[in-house]
Amino acid sequence: MTAPLPTTPPPGFRVWALPGIPEVRPGDDLVKLIAAAATADELPGLADGDVLLVTSKIVSKAEGRIVEAADRQAAIDAEAVRVVARRGELRIVENRLGLVMAAAGVDASNTAAGTILLLPEDPDASARALRAGLRDALGVDVGIIVTDTFGRPWRSGLTDVAIGAAGVRVLDDLRGGVDSHGNPLNVTVVATADELAAAGDLVKGKASGLPVAVVRGLPHVVAPGDGGSDLGARALVRNAADDMFRLGTSEAVREAVTLRRTVREFTDAPVDPGAVRRAVAAAVTAPAPHHTTPWRFVLLESESSRVELLDAMRDAWIADLRGDGFSEESIAKRVRRGDVLRKAPYLVVPCLVADGSHTYPDARRNAAEREMFVVAAGAGVQNFLVALAGERLGSAWVSSTMFCRDVVRSVLSLPENWDPMGAVAVGHAAAPPRERPARDASEFFSVR
Ligand SMILES: Cc1cc2nc3c(=O)[nH]c(=O)nc-3n(C[C@H](O)[C@H](O)[C@H](O)COP(=O)(O)O)c2cc1C
Asked: What is the domain count for the chain?
């Protein structure tokens, strides 16, 4: 038995390339060239609801975005606002349009030898101009997508994406709806403009001199009129702050070190104990002498444990200052500076346990042995702080516990051989750390 014919045709669309567009030169009228190509006799013409996929190269050429090839690196620098990843000569950068792409889209292909092409100055504006021009020339309401070719993280191969758009619903937000099983769609926002760009690339190709394609049959993706809701392809750019993959792997590792800065003001937001445990796991991968593991971390998770320790340390400090002969007023002032620990929502006391250290018959070598363990403790704490920064937690490593070790051991019931190595205040930074100019490495090394 044959199935009954459906009453409405299944979804489908047509895509074709426009032949006959000549090599574009600076100052050429793209509207004219595209209108002439689209209305050639053997083609179906253009109609309301069509979407034109226009290769950015011809837009750049028409707009005169051509520079001498000798300036390629300088052109990349000028277009880039941030390096996302670098491997040898290859630079993946975020350009001034927010697009993350190789070499800022500065391209030496598809252009005369000795010259390079920059992306259009404002691809959304270019798309709007084409849309308006075609409406004037042919009386049709079409969507325009300006396309470029991108590689993608995790995926081999290149594909076209939308870098400019006009009159196109570039994103299809399905959140709040349900799938065919009734499951809620919580994250599904379809990148329609990129899908259309890729469809156009199937017929345009890279070397075939076909820079424009037409998609017909998807009129719902074309937004009628020029309403303020026309977001352009800008809407497809993911905000770097929301991007879980903001940096390449090497760059992220490098940045982790500089991300760590002393944070002395915290919000009230609680600290995730799991994040602290992950940071401890990173801490104990630090180098240490004789294959020892001299690090211990006392996590002060209850407020009472923190207050009891801080009160006892304050009393010990006051006793020291009185012994030094400071006035009560001056003592009060100094003690107030200890507030960084009191205001933190979480404290950690890193300790050095020098189990496995060697003993020598002389003081010189015993002192060196002790220093080895102390620097290893520092390496562990630095690992800990860097890992906390990777968890987006701020920290301040302060010295206080080192100056009253007996008191700390007594209040926290620590074994005699645990040497507190300061205290680490942990929390969510109330404000970004103050900018600090990069230090010139050459002032910190000497070469022999
Ligand atoms: C062993 C050690 C002890 C420290 N003690 C204190 C301290 O008692 N109080 C304080 O506010 N900061 C203390 N710091 C933090 C430094 O002041 C801080 O690292 C420095 O200002 C550099 O800023 P940055 O960490 O943001 O790079 C200490 C740092 C280290 C490594």
From this structure: 2
Asked if residue 374 and residue 315 are part of one domain, the reply reads yes
Does 2 fall in a domain?
A: no
Of the residues 258, 347, 385, 399, which should be mutated to test ligand 1's pocket, given the most ligand atoms within 8 Å of the CB? 399
Cβ-based burial of 52 (10 A; exposed 0-12, middle 13-18, buried ≥19): buried
**Measured distance CA(323)–CA(317) in Å, rounded:** 10
Verify whether ligand 1 is closer than 6 Å to residue 425 (CB atom): no
Q: Is 262 in the pocket of ligand 1 (CB under 6 A)?
A: yes
> Tokens 């950690």 label which residue?
348
Q: For residues 400 and 357, what is the distance between their CA atoms, to the nearest angstrom?
A: 25
DSSP state of 92: E
Q: What is the pLDDT of residues 381-399, one digit of tens each?
A: 999 999 999 999 999 999 9
**pTM, whole model, 2 decimals?**
0.76
The residue out of 215, 242, 269 marking a domain boundary is 242
Distance, CA of 89 to chain centre: 21
Q: How far is the CA of 385 from the centre of ligand 1 (A)?
A: 12
Q: For residue 325, report the distance from its CA to the centre of ligand 1, in Å.
A: 26
Cα–Cα dist 319/326, whole Å: 10
**pLDDT digit string, tens, across residues 33-80:** 999 999 998 999 999 999 999 999 999 999 999 988 777 888 888 899
Looking at the structure, do residues 53 and 19 belong to the same domain, yes or no?
Answer: yes
Same domain assignment for residues 232 and 101: yes
C-alpha 436 – ligand 1 centre gap (Å):
14
Residues 224 and 269 in one domain: no
- Domain assignment of residue 124, given as a range: 14-242
175 and 320 co-located in one domain: no
pLDDT digits (tens, 9 = 90+) for 239-264: 888 888 999 989 988 888 999 999 99
Specify the residue with its C-alpha closest to ligand 1, atom 13. 398
